[in-house]
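Bench log, entry 3. Co-assembly request; chain sequences pasted below exactly as received.
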Amino acid sequence: MMTAASGGEDALTALTTLVGEDLEACNRLIVARMHSPVALIPQLAAHIVAAGGKRLRPLLTLAAARLCGYRGDRHVALAACVEFIHTATLLHDDVVDESALRRGQASANALFGNKPSVLVGDFLFARAFELMVQDGSLRVLAILSAASATIAEGEVLQLVTQNDTTTTEAQYLQVIEGKTAALFAAATRIGAVVADRPAAEEAALETYGRALGTAFQLVDDALDYAAEEERLGKTIGDDFREGKITLPVLLAFQRGDEDERGFWRRTLEAREQAPGDLARAQRLIEQHQALRDTVERARAYGEEALAALAIFPDGPERRALADIVAFCIARAR
Amino acid sequence: MMTAASGGEDALTALTTLVGEDLEACNRLIVARMHSPVALIPQLAAHIVAAGGKRLRPLLTLAAARLCGYRGDRHVALAACVEFIHTATLLHDDVVDESALRRGQASANALFGNKPSVLVGDFLFARAFELMVQDGSLRVLAILSAASATIAEGEVLQLVTQNDTTTTEAQYLQVIEGKTAALFAAATRIGAVVADRPAAEEAALETYGRALGTAFQLVDDALDYAAEEERLGKTIGDDFREGKITLPVLLAFQRGDEDERGFWRRTLEAREQAPGDLARAQRLIEQHQALRDTVERARAYGEEALAALAIFPDGPERRALADIVAFCIARAR
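Structure output for the full assembly:
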């Protein structure tokens, strides 16, 4: 029986060290392939691709391939594809959310404007597919093109449920499984595909990635009401200001009285927000133990992720992937 | 020696009739494949996909495949891919250009907002790649993923050269070859690929599509200064208001005196525009015969497109594709 190790950042460092050479090769490929004679493209892409990202998703692809005993180098290019798709969605997300900060720095849309952010996102997305075509696996192309459509569906559903306090937990889960978990699931699954492993291992890595991604997003949504801005490297209260209906809000809304529901409707539906409202939202969420229960939910997905790893032999890759579960959840502390 | 027939709209009707059953199958597939459980996606997509488009690009794919003697039905799905990619770029273009009208109707961004337009564009792009993967041709995937990256590069270059009267004709041509001609070229080229024809025919159809697309965009850029709004089905003067540096402006700027250049710098670079400025821009462009020469340039590309068809046997497909050249240029009258 595996349990999540206690380590937080250490787990990320350990994983990064484990696949260090592969990650360096992946980073070199990312820089080489975001080149374009149109200088603004690498400039803008470098701002987001090269600056401060954890590279969590490509790390997952690299480690999953090694976990499956893969000894070639195709996984490096596929990890770069995953990062390009992720980066394209970040650029478009920041435009859609009107975000000013990303990883503690001015976001690309704040710095370069919305227009190039939309178009450079399109470029990176197309470039990801060019890289996949060069790799030549129709199975990988099928997985990542389906994931890309699912991400867009999740993002649109998020937009539709925004400012709507009648959103259900099922809809919320559909949003985060689309916008976040689908790419985690694809990132880990293609590790098994590139290693040509049996369907059971592919399914196990898919389950691991999906559960991990769901846990990751649940914690992210908790952090938006809990963390200090500097520590988090993103503006807190973003979800509140945008009227995003996340699990902490859903739980506090369900558990609140009529007066409190009126508060949520005014601030999230009517988007009439005054100074002090974010603080009150944080108090209500705390009072109804909505953060604790959101993280508890994340922990349950974390256990599902760990369980999925059980069919693989013990070893440094399996331990590193198990510890990443703890890392994703430890961010909430 | 082929010459462009005199027909305008007739040529489009003839082409549509020639591949009528294929086009109907393509339209059915488009409607089926833009479906999503997230209802806003087909709603928004239907607004742009189903409403009023000429379907010029998928028509080119269908006719090119038949010209190459293809007798299967794979070209139908690939024509749908081409239209999905085109639609995705239209949605993003309208966001970037802040357009209020598209084909004479309220644009998707004006009706639904910028945010869903960005995300539904992403969805359609991903869906195009899913369809290509199902078709299973890595060569088609290579052509359309490269074209998609080139389109984004052209769009970014257009943004970079916007409001810059020092833009050269070479840069302008790079913009329109990217944003428009690349997809025309890919659309016709994959007709030869799906028919498994020799490289010479693939190259000829690529040349035809690229030259036709360039002519099409040149005429489009001329129309923005010449046509009446109702006839054109788009707001005229858009390029002027946005400060886009198109060939009519480049020619008028080159041929103008210092006073006129001051006018162009004020209106396009500083974007200080007053009532009457569009009319003056139109007069200057007329006076320097910049529209005539832009259309003349389009005609030269049209001749190149016609010449590329010469290696194919005479027949209804070749005649229809030749007449489409005349159609694209006749729009300027």
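Chain A touches chain B at residues 36-41, 88-89, 92, 95-96, 114-116, 118-123, 125-127, 129-130, 132-134, 136, 138, 141-142, 145-146, 148-149, 151-153, 155-157, 159-160 (CB under 8 Å). The beta strands of chain A are 101-102, 105-106.
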